[in-house]
Design goal:
The structure is a single chain. It is globular, with a radius of gyration of 21 Å. The longest helix has 18 residues. It contains 12 helices and 12 strands. Helix 7 links the parallel strand 7 and strand 8. Helix 1 packs across helix 10. By secondary structure, the chain is an alpha/beta fold. The strands form 2 sheets. Strands 3-2-1-4-5-6 form a 6-stranded parallel beta sheet, with helices on both faces.
Length: 344
């Protein structure tokens, strides 16, 4: 069936949105004449594909919504309902698969609603779950099963990335202001779950070893990572070749920073998937999450270091006996780094 006006719901998080980019590209390839609209939280909109892949972006402001009282929340939903109804969508694709996305799909005014195989929190009662041959595989392939269901060909995985010329110039100015010249390694110390974070003292020791090896290190990430960046620089001894840009870049500037790096290193966090989409050499440390399901996808030079803890892959956001990420030592990551740069 052909569709002319499609709503794609994927509101968060950064990594999840990046995982959805190949689906968006495949959707555009399948429906070249359709108008495709993406519904997203404003803070994650900076890396959505530009036209012609996505024609329009709509916003559901979760931060604003969470601060509202009950009556204001109801009014906000009614406003969203009027907006969505006015668009007259003929297909709604819920790629979030959660209660909040299910509500928005339900009030869209479109009766033709589908989602990917893992529909949770009752979302499967609102949108039809599409389960393909990759239901047990990587999340990107699970999303692409929906594109295949719609008739798209997915022989090549494409990440529709924004043009970053302006952001690259801004990043170069910021690096120059810090006295950094030449090649650099990007390290992002944060993660959305506490249990996914690699210890700051491990990052500090790793930074010392990389700098001693002759390469500069740039710490990067969002405002929530700024405290970690400061602690790492203090623990590392405030090395001249260690630059802390945590909390000092926009999403697109962060992507430009990663695009220009020699090697990218982090735990399982959103910017990791920037690096994978940009096909950068990268090293990722995994403890509570499963790399075969949400690991870096797209890079031809990705090294994933899995914790040897018996409980690794538990998917716990909190843990009373957390040690899996500590079990990945700085020496282990540095050895992977040395091996990687020898091949570059």
């Amino acid at each position: 069936m052909e569709y002319k006006n499609i709503l794609l719901i994927k509101m968060s998080s950064l990594g999840d949105i990046l995982h959805t980019l190949p689906f968006a590209a495949a959707l555009r390839q399948r429906f070249p004449e359709a108008k495709i609209t993406w519904l997203v939280h404003p803070q994650f909109a900076g890396f959505l594909p530009d036209p012609p892949v996505i024609d329009e972006v709509l916003y559901f402001d979760k931060v604003k919504f969470n601060k509202m009282n009950l009556l204001d929340k109801l009014a906000y939903f009614l406003e969203m309902r009027r907006l969505l109804h006015s668009k007259k969508f003929d297909l709604v694709i819920d790629m979030q698969g959660l209660f909040k996305s299910a509500v928005l799909a339900a009030i869209s005014g479109c009766s033709n609603r589908i989602g990917y195989c893992e529909m949770r929190e009752g979302s499967g009662l609102v949108s039809k779950a599409v389960c393909g041959s990759h239901a047990g595989g990587h999340v990107i392939e699970r999303y692409l099963d929906v594109a295949r269901y719609l008739g798209a060909t997915t022989d090549e995985i494409v990440f529709p990335l924004p043009e970053l010329t302006k952001e690259t110039a801004v990043v170069q100015e910021k690096l120059a202001a810090q006295g950094l010249q030449g090649e650099y390694v990007v390290i992002v110390p944060g993660a959305r779950w506490k249990t996914k974070e690699w210890p700051v003292e491990h990052y500090a020791r790793l930074a010392q070893m990389i700098v001693a090896d002759g390469c500069s290190v740039v710490l990067a990430g969002g405002p929530d990572d700024a405290t970690k960046g400061k602690r790492i620089t203090e623990m590392a001894g405030e090395l001249p070749q260690l630059v802390d840009l945590t909390g000092q870049t926009s999403l697109r500037e962060l992507a430009a920073l990663i695009k220009g790096c020699k090697v990218y290193i982090s735990a399982d966090t959103g910017p990791l998937h920037f690096a994978a989409a940009l096909k950068k050499p990268l090293i990722a440390m995994y403890g509570p999450t499963k790399a075969d399901r949400t690991g870096p996808y797209g890079s031809d030079d990705a090294t994933v270091i899995l914790s040897l803890a018996d409980c690794a892959g538990c998917l716990k956001k909190e843990c009373d006996a957390w040690h899996c990420m500590y079990d990945i030592t700085p020496d282990m990551v540095y050895a992977a780094y040395v091996e990687k740069i020898r091949r570059l």
